[in-house]
Design brief:
Elements: H1 6-16, H2 28-31, H3 37-49, H4 57-69, H5 73-85, H6 93-105, H7 109-118, E1 130-131, E2 137-138, E3 144-145, E4 149-152, E5 155-158, H8 170-178, H9 186-197, H10 217-222, H11 231-248, H12 253-262, H13 264-270, H14 277-290
Antiparallel strand pairs: 1-2, 2-3, 4-5
Helix pairs in contact: 1-7, 3-4, 4-5, 5-6, 6-7, 8-9, 8-11, 9-14, 11-12, 12-13, 12-14
Length: 291
């Protein structure tokens, strides 16, 4: 008998869960203060599905994360589901498996089935982290941890993106629409586009970097860009590369930006930002644009 597809399994799992009755609207700030794991998970589900409250996937993740830290198996499973189906951005099967594995360790039968469908055996290599839709993370108390940072004088310093980029028009609207799919702050992406091409979709550099995000042909091919001169394809390719760099350099924004400009190989060879005047100025210019 043929096995059902992963999509069919996900849909069946969703159908199997009975919908909770609509909740009375309340503030997220009051709910997140709870120390009761089951209550946190229950409200996480309500925020995930918009049951009596405005739907907010990041609020759901923060509530589930706090509940999971307190041992709630359902919260582990729901986090796995969110990343498996891409509710917080692009689908992330490795991260989903990490959360399903934790739920399976608590004898959740649905989680065990999902691990089988995802084809993951043994202990996952990916850490079970609570990634938010814009690239941030939630911690064990449901608080937001800013993943972007830079090693300034006195040690590692968080980078808070406090400025809204002033860009308007079609490209800016497209970036703000697409960035959550890649768990990136749109203001970061807009700052990179400004530095790379000044929003010129036909820009070409002497090194043959092309389009809005100045993709070289090798990078475009690596991230599946078929037409580098198509603005959306170009932006998607650039954001996929930024997302990859975020994970590769564990959110160190200086290294991410340096690698986007000079390549991750150059960052690794020099053990940090390469001693290139262009790259160092590039990193400083974008960070100063963000806060």
């Amino acid at each position: 008998m043929p096995q059902p597809s992963l999509l069919a399994t996900l849909l069946l799992a969703l159908a199997a869960g009975s919908a909770a009755p609509p909740a009375v609207a309340t503030s997220f700030e009051s709910v997140i203060k709870s120390g009761n794991a089951r209550e946190l998970a229950r409200w996480g589900r309500r925020f995930e599905h918009g049951e009596g409250v405005d739907r907010d996937i990041d609020h759901a993740i923060r509530l589930y994360c706090k509940a999971a830290a307190r041992g709630d198996a359902a919260a582990h499973y729901h986090l796995g589901w969110i990343y498996a189906v891409g509710r917080a951005g692009a689908r992330d099967e490795a991260l989903a498996a990490a959360w399903f594995y934790r739920a399976a360790q608590k004898n959740d039968p649905h989680a065990k089935r999902m691990l089988e469908r995802l084809g993951h055996e043994g202990k996952p290599r990916q850490a079970a982290v609570c990634l938010l839709s814009d690239g941030g993370r939630a911690n064990a108390d449901g608080g937001i941890v800013q993943p972007m940072r830079y090693a300034g004088r006195g040690g590692t310093t968080p980078v808070s993106i406090t400025r809204e980029h002033p860009a308007k028009g079609r490209v800016a609207r497209m970036v703000r629409r697409l960035a959550p799919e890649y768990r990136l702050n749109p203001n970061l992406v807009l700052a990179v586009i400004e530095a790379e091409s000044n929003f010129n979709p036909r820009a070409r550099s002497p090194k043959n970097a092309q389009g809005l995000m100045q993709l070289i042909p090798e990078t475009a091919e690596r991230f599946g860009v078929g037409d580098v001169w198509d603005p959306e394809q170009n932006v998607r390719g650039g954001m996929a590369y930024l997302r990859w760099l975020m994970r590769y350099f564990d959110g160190d924004l200086e290294l991410v930006l340096a690698a986007y400009n000079a390549g991750e190989g150059a960052v690794e060879r020099h053990g940090g930002i390469p001693p290139y005047a262009e790259t160092q100025a590039y990193v400083r210019r974008i960070i100063s644009r963000l806060n």
